[in-house]
Amino acid sequence: MTTTDTTTPAAEAPPRGGEIVCEDVVRIFSADGIEVQALQGLNLHVAAGDLVAIVGASGSGKSTLLTILSGLDTPTAGKASVAGTDLLTMRGRARVNYQRHTVGFVWQQTSRNLLPYLTALENVCLPMSLAGTASVPHAEHLLRLLGVEHCRDRKPTEMSGGEQQRVAIAVAVANSPKVLLADEPTGELDEATSVEVLETMRAVNAELGVTVLIVTHDPTVSEHVRRTVQIRDGRTSTEVLRRRETDEHGQEQHIAEEFAVLDKVGRMQLPHDFVDALELKQRVRLALEPDHVGVWRDTTDDPKPTDQGEAAPSGASNDGSDDANRAEPSERPEPEGTR
Ligand SMILES: Nc1ncnc2c1ncn2[C@@H]1O[C@H](COP(=O)(O)OP(=O)(O)OP(=O)(O)O)[C@@H](O)[C@H]1O
Predict the structure, then answer these.
(1) Residue 15 lies in a domain
(2) How far is the CA of 152 from the CAs of 126, 133, 163, 171, in angstroms?
(3) Could you tell me the CATH number of the domain that includes residue 118?
(4) Per-residue DSSP letters for 281-292?
(5) Which residue range is the domain that position 225 belongs to?
């Protein structure tokens, strides 16, 4: 990952609010009398037209989030809406309409996305027929856009895994949803085919303007999206925003900046590698500077060197003043907001 400093990170950030809004979303599962908090106050805002990857360790809550956004499950608490539809109060007919028109899905298992006894064209026409808007020319247009027009009259068993996933994307966007949700869409594919499928997702995002959210374990997915959101223990923890810039030599640079997610009351999680690198534990020292917040390891209880080079008693300062523990600006580490 190429990283570089930048003076205007906020200028590139997507606007707050928008197509997908999750605020303090909680999902508790009860099984055999044991409660599992899969989502523990998750916050996520995705703007209309954005292309976002959600990454995280196994069990961090990615699939739970996607199942809620797809309308197949309801949060225990919090606020969640997609394209203005409130996912907590949605019932019956509204839920069917939501799944048919507002969101489209692509699942990991290629076999789950397509009906095996229908051709690619028939698979794409099916959701339109259910909505009463079947159009062969529109289905053909989508197959062409996704580069699988040659599969028009083939059944899934006559297509490669990558072709099946690209047809699945055409099926998912057949009813012009506002949001396309994909759960590990490259999970069963080799690297080269994964890249093709991800590029297809980009094309759908760019050409049709559909907002795309991809849940994945695959770290290479991050290189194909503008924004990667990390979920940790049921909460969004950090984000990486990517963009391309041309430097003064005319060379294109890929810029990746890491951000921490700040909730409404100001809580944030520091990335694991920051915590490990500075051996941060239990408590950190903070300082508000004009344009950033400084975070330092708590050295209050460290032995202090004396003039003779011996350790002073814990907590004692060199000159007896409280300021002795504060590093002078020249001694301070660089701000950690960018890497
Ligand atoms: N229906 C359920 N009943 C009980 N616990 C559940 C249920 N679904 C998920 N969980 C638990 O919730 C937590 C989050 O699960 P989730 O499937 O969302 O994680 P994930 O990040 O998608 O993991 P993976 O990458 O392995 O699919 C896990 O501890 C899981 O065991």
Answers:
(1) no
(2) 14, 19, 11, 12
(3) 3.40.50.300
(4) BSBEEEEE-SS-
(5) 47-75+85-245
pLDDT per position as a tens digit, 150-194: 999 999 999 998 899 999 999 999 999 999 999 988 887 788 888
ipTM: 0.96
| Residue range 11-49, pLDDT digits in tens | 333 334 469 999 999 999 988 888 999 999 999 999 999
For the chain, what is the domain count?
A: 2
Say how many Å lie between the CA of residue 60 and the centre of ligand 1.
7
Whether residues 188 and 295 share a domain: the answer is no
Tell me, yes or no, whether 61 and 199 share the same domain.
yes
pTM of the full structure: 0.78
Rounded to the nearest 10°, the torsion over CA 219, 223, 277, 290 is -140
Query: If you search the block for the tokens 């080079």, which residue do you land on?
Result: 309
Helix ranges restricted to H, 187-279 = 191-208, 272-277
Give me the residue label for tokens 């690198």: 277
Pocket around ligand 1 at a 6 A CB cut-off: 29, 31, 36, 38, 56, 58-64, 217
Q: How far is the CA of 76 from the centre of ligand 1 (A)?
A: 15
Coil, strand or helix: which one is 39?
strand
Give, using CA atoms, the residue closest to atom 3 of ligand 1: 29
String of b and e for 144-175 (b: at least 16 CB within 10 Å)?
ebbebeebbebbbeebebbbbbbbbbbbbbbb
